[in-house]
Amino acid sequence: MATLASPSPSAITQNPDIRYLGRLLGDVIRAYGGEKLYKQTEYIRSASVDRARGLQGADLTDTGLDALSLDDTLAFTRGFMLFSMLANLAEDRQGVTAEPGADVASAVARLESHGIGRDAVLDLLSHALIVPVLTAHPTEVRRKSMIDHKNRIADLMLLKDAGRTETDDGEQLDEAIFRQIALLWQTRPLRREKLFVADEIENVLAYFRDTFLPVLPALYARWERVLGARPHSFLRVGSWIGGDRDGNPFVQAPQLEFALKRGCQAAIAYYLDALHALGAELSLSTELAHVPQAVLDLAEASGDTSPSRRDEPYRRALSGIYARLAATCVALTGTAPARPATLKGEAYPTPQALRRDLVIVAQGLASEGNGALATGGALGRLIRAVETFGFHLATLDMRQNSAVHERVVAELLKQAGVEPDYLALDEYARIALLRRELASNRPLGSRFSAYSEETASELAIVHAAAAAHRAYGPPCITHYIISKAESVSDLLEVNILLKEAGLWQAGVDGAPPQAAIMAIPLFETIADLEAAPAIMTAYFGLPEIAGVVQARGHQEVMIGYSDSNKDGGYITSTWSLYKASQALEPVFADAGAAMQLFHGRGGAVGRGGGSAFAAIQAQPRGSVQGRIRITEQGEVIAAKFGTRDVAMTNLESMTSATLLASLEPEGISPRDAARFAGAMDELSKNAFAAYRDLVYGTEGFKEFFRQLTPIQEISGLKIGSRPASRTRSNAIEDLRAIPWVFSWAQARVMLPGWYGVGHALTQFEDKALLADMAQHWAFLKSALANLEMVLAKSDLGIAARYLPLVEDQAGAEAIFGRIKDGWGQAHDGLLAATGQSRLLEKSPALETSIRLRLPYIEPLNLLQVELLKRHRAGEDDARIKEGIELSINAIATALRNSG
């Protein structure tokens, strides 16, 4: 199958990896699937490529799909899915997804061109915090085993880059890659059992262990060279997995405890391995090197009396550190390390105590020569790792819905005899009551009271968080996010719950209160975002809250991309998020607190996806301030952090964008900013009206969506522990944003990423102003770039093939007609605003990437439609259901950012 990866000659010459891996995949299909399957696949591929090229006579009348049996269909779908996976790998290797200038060195140079020196950068970094937060949101359809095989291929390709012809084990390199592709071919791609929270924890732990632990210290070492100084560990990692309870009844105290315990085990195991390697390396002898007394004391305290190491104090010191760290592992996790210590040691009380011992060793090495042995190399990376990851590995966020907090606090108040009906109180009465309770350290709960299952579970969670603080240190949990935060009382209720576990302490003797965990509102809908400044102004206006915030120095607010998009459409969501960020900045300034925005972005453009480098830079000036957290979800985790090289590229991009957004001057004048904002208000208003009219104002639209797209089948996928809907309702309002966006992508409509924008662009009269905004305003430039990518990946000709799945054909035709008209308006309006003759004309690498994929997606969509028809007609052959799920997997893999 030498031509499997050949949709166009230009695509091949631009990425030889795709040609090479595609040829090997064709060989695997021939060897393991047989000559018949190989020929069928090649016929379907070439016919689809011809259609994509627009060759005469290449239409849908002879796709080759009708000749496939059900067994052939399953095998064919796997083949196309694997090609897309290998194409993703090839593009990542060739840097197709990397952006020019998206590195710290380039950002520093760019800032210097504006007269902003490195001292200003270092000053910003001294109080900066940049955190990618990994969540378990279910958009990753591939099994971890598939991703592991892909990553092994990536490692082998690196050897090939280095001119190697054999692996370290002596295996011929081409044969080793072929073998990994063959293993992929014979690995079951679908999960048979539903994921449990523990599975999600273990899956994400692999990224922390294999990627973040080694990558972050290496990045810091690079940045030290660029900056000429050693910044503090401002780039860290976070996780929701094991702490996110919003709509997931399976996350309770045991899951939170398990997540933290496994993180601790992974971090300490990494440190122990590094210490073991250092012990082998640091063979310095007192007979040949001067050793400071502090190192000698550390060696003496180790208990290592081996005669063979008597003159090797660094090795003896490291043996003692190893023994203490092994004891720490036992104390914190109850398990011994894989390589037990040969000495006895007292557990370290904190990561800082471990770091102090490592610094003593580093300072000893620096005392002689030119200091080359001191903080560079493996020891320097280990010290940085301990600073960055502590004993907890990743900060675990807690999250719950405000409605749950209301019920739990109401029950606590009633049981304690404080207030019989808290839920009946208005907002002012609630605030007054909650403030009285926060002024006292007296808990409301009692171990002698009988609580509902919900209340007992929530109390257990906060007590588990308090226990984690005592065991792993306060950095293990620092954020408590409140979904559907709509009032000040929503924030105060969380502080009440934290007080039950001693995580909120009322001030005594005039001292301000202390909050070990920060209550963070999540503003999700358009109305929430508009109300955010007023809510935060009122919250900061409470003296006890002002004291806590000023003592901490910053406060976080989370803004949600997914639900705001589902609520108001793409451009209104994007603009509302921008305006909320802009309006919050003076509120925080007046409160004397740094603003830290937590961006709840997903993979798809309809959920905030697209270039993070461009998106961060497009934030309103003053809203970043060196502090930003961003969710990384589902398939995006593997795409951005699946290999160390790709992870370094993406983490550096996030960091450089934050530097630029925080320090670079605004690219437009205040006058233009005002003009552009007024224009955006008009665009947003018209886009919102069009989107709401279609999605929420059109009779039968809910049924149209549920029958046109594979939403029912997606809900049955074993890709996450959380239900697809928040309630049993089938209303769009109650559907989670992830399946909403994911379903539209599968049917190639991608409606959440563009609908309504075309109406707004068409109705906007000042086309010259629109073009000026698109060219010079970072915000609109980023928004339109994402819109353009979605339009290029959508295909309403393919989407029309799904129309027969809708029962009301007359209604379906009418709704689909409106969608087609909206797409045409968005397409034409975008080209006019950006001055292009075709989509992606100014983004040739992305255009090539998408054009390469389209011929491999079309047959999958056509097969999916036929299988959906048979499934919904009642055919119960298990292969039909498996084929649908495989097609979902394959289409998502090919589209990349679809969920």
UniProtKB/TrEMBL annotation:
Entry similarity comment: Belongs to the PEPCase type 1 family.
Pfam families: PEPcase
Taxonomic lineage of the native organism: Bacteria, Pseudomonadati, Pseudomonadota, Alphaproteobacteria, Sphingomonadales
Entry cofactors: Mg(2+)
Active-site residues, Swiss-Prot/TrEMBL: H137, K566
Function: Forms oxaloacetate, a four-carbon dicarboxylic acid source for the tricarboxylic acid cycle.
Originating organism: Sphingobium cyanobacteriorum
SUPFAM superfamilies: Phosphoenolpyruvate/pyruvate domain
InterPro entries named in the record: PEP_COase, PEP_COase_bac/pln-type, PEP_COase_Lys_AS, PEPCASE_His_AS, Pyrv/PenolPyrv_kinase-like_dom
Keyword line: Carbon dioxide fixation, Lyase, Magnesium
Subunit structure as annotated in this protein's UniProt entry: Homotetramer.
Protein name, as recorded: Phosphoenolpyruvate carboxylase
Enzymatic reactions: oxaloacetate + phosphate = phosphoenolpyruvate + hydrogencarbonate
One annotated GO molecular function: phosphoenolpyruvate carboxylase activity
